[in-house]
Design a protein that fits this description.
By secondary structure, the protein is mainly α. It has 13 helices and two strands, in the order ββααααααααααααα. A two-stranded antiparallel ribbon has the order 1-2. Helix 10 runs antiparallel to helix 11. The N terminus is likely disordered.
Length: 329
């Protein structure tokens, strides 16, 4: 197989996937009723295969993924959220979303817990943005980002070197098509937000809830969503607008569920910043209602994107009720 089963090459810039078909033998449209036992079993098996695929991919970048906090449960949790968000897909079709999420965790760790100065954070952000624009990667974190960038252009084949060979055979260069520009813009927003959280911690700042939510891009949720939709060929709008509200909801959901761990780690969290759980819960209810309003019309125009966003809300609500993505630091 020489191309991702979800997409075709369309010339310069990012390729676009096929929004109408799947090679899994299962319906390409999202399910409409409660899943059967067989469907749940298939989704869990898909999650296991995604986790194995992610673990193999992570080994290509060695030092980026130490066993603490990237334990076996971490890889399985990413496999689960990817599979339950798009249960009709194949492992190959979920490589963009799962690898984008994996990269977000890697860069988040480096900014939050490895960088020792603002100069290091600034340099890392600059290097990542340069590579997103086509520069040659010079470190494991930027090499992973370049592989993600190339995968969105050329697909995610089983052979990890094939995307590079496709890139080398291409004569069209790295052009700025709309999807490319949107992806780089979302990457910049995410990295800028992560850097701002570093600044808050360094200064001992305590932003209010509005300022904190305005920085929700630091979760990486919208960056992961955009990577997924570029790969599968979903229209980026209006799904991205709905995704912004989902991202804000997930920011606060994570904070409620992981306040103790984030206090130990020194990470930004609404509760550790002094915002009350009642205020957080009230704001979450309002955000969830706005997200639902934006998702509702998507069911007709982009049913897979609508299902995916609804699953981001519901899956993570259940998941965070019992566990966390990170292992112990």
């Amino acid at each position: 197989m020489t191309h991702s089963p979800t997409g075709v090459q369309t010339g310069a810039g990012f390729r676009t996937g096929s929004p109408t078909g799947s090679t899994t033998g299962l319906p390409a449209d999202p399910p409409t009723g409660p899943p059967t036992g067989a469907e749940l079993g298939r989704t869990c098996a898909l999650a296991v295969e995604c986790a194995r695929d992610l673990s193999r991919h992570a080994r290509r970048y060695g030092e980026l993924f130490p066993a603490r906090p990237f334990d076996a449960g971490f890889f399985h949790s990413l496999g689960l959220v990817s599979a339950f968000g798009s249960p009709w897909a194949s492992t190959a079709e979920l490589r963009a979303v799962s690898r984008a999420a994996l990269w977000v965790f890697a860069v988040d760790l480096r900014i939050d817990h490895i960088a020792e100065s603002r100069a290091e954070v600034t340099a890392l952000v600059g290097d990542c943005l340069d590579v997103a624009g086509g520069a040659t990667p010079l470190s494991p974190i930027t090499r992973f980002l370049a592989d993600l960038r190339d995968g969105l252009r050329y697909g995610f084949p089983d052979d990890p070197e094939e995307a590079g060979r496709r890139r080398d055979r291409s004569r069209d260069g790295f052009q700025n098509e709309p999807a490319d520009a949107a992806w780089r813009d979302q990457l910049a927003r995410m990295l800028t937000a992560m850097a701002k959280e570093w600044d808050w911690r360094a200064a001992g700042a305590r932003p209010g809830l509005e300022e904190y939510l305005d920085n929700a891009a630091g979760t990486g949720s919208s960056f992961v969503n955009l990577s997924h939709w570029i790969s599968t060929g979903e229209p980026l709008e209006p799904a991205s607008r709905a995704g912004e509200e989902v991202q804000r909801y997930l920011r606060l959901l994570n904070d409620l569920a992981t306040a103790d761990r984030e206090a130990r780690w020194g990470d930004a969290n609404a509760l550790t910043l002094g915002i009350s759980p009642a205020d957080v819960s009230e704001r979450m209810a309002g955000i969830a209602a706005r997200a639902a309003e934006l998702i509702r019309p998507l069911r007709a125009t982009g049913p897979r994107a609508a299902y995916y966003l609804e699953r981001q809300l519901t899956f993570n609500t259940g998941f965070y009720g019992m566990s966390d993505y990170w292992g112990e630091l």
